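Quick one: structure tokens for this chain, please?
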Amino acid sequence: MLFDIAQAEVARMYWYAGWVWMAFMPLLWIALIVLAVWAVIRLTHATTGGASPRGHGWASGPPQETPEEILDRRYASGEIDTDAYTEARERLAAHRPKSR
């Protein structure tokens, strides 16, 4: 008789625990999804964002090159010849805003 009562108590305890887990599991999944979305947003903004247009620091990504730096690099690597380089330099200089 005592064994039957104890067995019934154990069965009731597992039944209540089952309902607790059933109520807890959707909350756990929601928390995991929110955490995953937060991590993706945090990581993508950390590698692409930046306060300055030149992008200094680890979180802002690699610094951006100016048009003149790109032109110099392409000329140095042999992608363009001297005539194209001088013509592009003149065009860039003509379209640069005048400093005051």
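Helices lie at 2-48, 67-77, 82-95.
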